[in-house]
Amino acid sequence: MNRETFFYRPTTVRDVTAGRTVLEPDRHTLVDVIDKLDPRQEAILVRDYTIVPTVSEQGIPYTHGQNFLKRGPKVHLAQPRSMEDARQKCLSALISRAYALNNLDPHRFYSGVSWRSLRTRQRKEFHLVDILEGARIFAFAHQSSDTDDKLRIKIYTKTPNLQQQGGTFEVEVPSRSQEGRYSLTLHHVPLSRRDSFHRYSLWRELSGSGHGGGFTANGEKRKRVCSKTYDPVTFRDASRAEVYCPHEVAAFLHISQRVRETTGGVIRQPFPLPTQFIVDRYLTLKNNVLITGKKRSKITQKEYRVFSQLLLRQMIKRN
């Protein structure tokens, strides 16, 4: 399987519209039109679209799309007082997300999902588009016939108290942009049994490390995988929130599959698993929708990521 073709995203008007009927809906009908779009025959061109709110609820301007993802309102999952409180309320990741999503303010734009570790109180975050990109990396690795494109578990460290601390895995994850793989480590992977005291709290502790590098296929060292924590110098959170990236999502999915195949166990997922509906709409946004601005012919990849996240949330809410 060709990596460039699998992860391709058109960026020009010609790339998007060639051979397709071009539709130009306004902001009020955009979601309806995307929902009914035939991706083989139609394309959407949106002119001068305001992708994200320009000002925060505190009156502070969002300088760009990435700034909104970092500082915009989050969907906060219920925070139990203790592990016992989490167990009594059965606050799994799935139930916690369901509670939160069923009580969203329909008039707010949310930039991500957030919760806190019970042990360290560190904030954890993910963005919907990164979950989808992680699932795409996982799918690419399994569909490709090239062994260098495969996800690999290099090291599994069995901790002294597996039920309480979870497992530690070092995983190699393929790159989306070039040949070779990144190496990263996931800690506190929730491997607790169904009857474990920690089954409703351990998922909150998942963390990653090793994002300072990795190695390409020819042995050359990469600069970094992705940004793991927010930095005050770049408008990032001073509390050092951990933001899960697509590579970690792909690694977690691979670990979950391996555990299922080798032990029959099921790992509790801290991330939502995308349905086929969401995957199809996401690919439509990537391949059939182009947003133009007043000062340039196309929006940047980072802005497009924000645009996709906001529109996907509206589609999920409606379906």
Q: What is the percentage of strand-forming residues?
A: 15-25%
User: The biggest beta sheet, please?
Assistant: 4 strands, mixed
Number of helices: 11
Kindly report how far apart the N and C termini lie. Answer: 33 Å
Q: How many separate domains make up the residues?
A: 1
Query: How would you describe the shape?
Result: globular
Overall mean confidence score, pLDDT: 81
Compressed to H and E, one letter per element, the order equals HHEHEHEHHEEHEHEEEEHHEH
Helix content: 25-40%
Rg, nearest Å: 20 Å
Instruction: State the strand order across the main sheet.
Output: 3-4-5-10
Quickly give the structural class: alpha/beta
Let me know the number of strands: 11
pLDDT < 50 runs, ≥5 residues: 230-238, 294-299
Could you describe the 3D structure shown?
By secondary structure, the chain is an alpha/beta fold. The chain has one domain (3-318). Helix content is 34%, strand content 17%. It has eleven helices and eleven strands. Helix 7 (128-143) packs across helix 9 (246-263) and helix 10 packs antiparallel against helix 11. The protein is globular.
Short précis:
This protein is an alpha/beta fold and 319 residues long. 34% of the residues lie in helices and 17% in strands.
List keywords for this structure.
about 325 residues; alpha/beta; four-stranded mixed sheet; globular
Topology:
Layout: H1 3-6, H2 13-17, E1 21-23, H3 30-36, E2 42-47, H4 65-71, E3 74-76, H5 83-88, H6 93-101, E4 112-116, E5 123-126, H7 128-143, E6 152-157, H8 162-165, E7 167-174, E8 181-189, E9 207-209, E10 242-243, H9 246-263, H10 276-288, E11 289-292, H11 301-318
Parallel strand pairs: 1-2, 2-11, 3-4, 5-10
Antiparallel strand pairs: 4-5, 6-7, 7-8, 8-9
Helix pairs in contact: 4-11, 7-9, 10-11
